[in-house]
């Protein structure tokens, strides 16, 4: 696995495993637990040592599945990211949420704790005071945010003594400056350059836009042949070729987990990266 430097001493794997829809959507789904746990274990064996989850996923059940899967491994080999939902950002709610996440994850620390999305009602100073106390108590190693724009990143950093090390945002060949939600805008022109200049890792979520990116496209079709790689591998390789960008494709299929790992360890010619930078993709 390749890594990117997190802050001065830490590192984050370039490719991680997304877990949205493993063990349910907003609500828990217990029907496929055995497969889900063995898929996550298998992914870790294959090299996916960063697992991205959230208290919201599967109404908490996804964290339970991740917790069961990681028990077979040395804890320090795994980098666990989880997120506090934006309705739980009051000081005491954050502490309670993280206590519950740690319990479900069966671990005594979280590597990276993110604010899942900004809140319009709860002051960020209150949330980050709780994040700071969790770092102080060594329950959380690194803190970050998700779906934040530049002004929100600047404000957040002013309210914590810890470095905001990461911003998880929707970013792929398809969603350049405009994502699904109103808050996901200006990623390429504003948020990413700001993160790159300020030593913040960009965790690109939905790297293949749930498969939408894998449709025929003249440039992707051409690059597939030129590099003997699949469209998913090209889309992921394009992301991680960028300064400070790591990503977290979700798959529960061994063949596709392997395929996505095949996005690592090679480089496209600069001209092709530029063509992709300039290409238009539509869903
Ligand atoms: N912070 C946020 O607000 C936020 C929002 C959305 C997502 N996320 C995180 O980002 C992760 C990734 O996003 P996502 O799961 O929405 O979308 P994604 O990773 O872009 O796509 C996942 C979908 O594509 C399929 N897939 C994976 N690899 C493939 C390949 N090589 N070829 C064809 N199909 C492939 C998967 O199916 P199979 O499982 O059948 O392979 C799954 O249906 C999430 O799981 C979650 O952890 C965070």
From TrEMBL:
SUPFAM superfamilies: NAD(P)-linked oxidoreductase (SSF51430). PROSITE patterns: ALDOKETO_REDUCTASE_2, ALDOKETO_REDUCTASE_3. The active site is at residue 57. It comes from the Bacteria. Residues 15-279 form the NADP-dependent oxidoreductase domain. It holds the Pfam family Aldo_ket_red. Coiled coil: none annotated. One of its GO terms (molecular function) is oxidoreductase activity. InterPro entries: AKR, Aldo/ket_reductase_CS, NAD(P)_OxRdtase_dom_sf, NADP_OxRdtase_dom. Substrate binds at residue 116. This is Aldo/keto reductase. The record marks 83 as: Lowers pKa of active site Tyr.
């Amino acid at each position: 696995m390749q890594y990117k430097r997190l802050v001065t001493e830490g590192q984050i794997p370039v490719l991680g495993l997304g877990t949205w829809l493993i063990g349910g959507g907003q609500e828990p789904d217990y029907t496929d637990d055995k497969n889900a746990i063995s898929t996550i274990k298998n992914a870790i064996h294959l090299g996916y040592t960063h697992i991205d989850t959230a208290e919201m996923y599967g109404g908490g059940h996804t964290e339970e599945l991740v917790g069961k899967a990681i028990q077979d491994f040395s804890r320090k080999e795994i980098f666990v990211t989880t997120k506090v939902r934006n309705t739980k950002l009051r000081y005491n709610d954050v502490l309670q949420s993280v206590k519950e996440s740690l319990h479900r994850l069966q671990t005594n620390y979280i590597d990276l704790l993110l604010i899942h999305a900004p809140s319009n009602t709860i002051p960020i100073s209150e949330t980050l005071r709780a994040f700071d106390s969790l770092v102080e108590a060594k329950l959380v190693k690194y803190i970050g945010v998700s779906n934040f724009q530049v002004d929100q990143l600047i404000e957040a950093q002013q309210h914590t003594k810890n470095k905001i090390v990461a911003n998880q945002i929707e970013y792929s060949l398809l969603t350049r400056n405009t994502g699904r939600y109103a808050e996901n805008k200006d990623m390429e022109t504003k948020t990413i350059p700001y993160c790159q200049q300020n030593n913040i890792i960009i965790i690109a979520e939905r790297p293949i836009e749930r498969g939408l990116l894998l449709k025929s496209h003249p440039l992707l079709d051409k690059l597939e042949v030129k590099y003997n790689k699949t469209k998913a591998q090209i889309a992921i390789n394009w992301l991680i070729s960028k300064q400070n960008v790591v990503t977290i494709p979700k798959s529960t299929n061994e063949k596709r987990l392997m395929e996505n790992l095949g996005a690592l360890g090679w480089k496209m010619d600069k001209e092709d990266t530029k063509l992709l930078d300039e290409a238009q993709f539509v869903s």
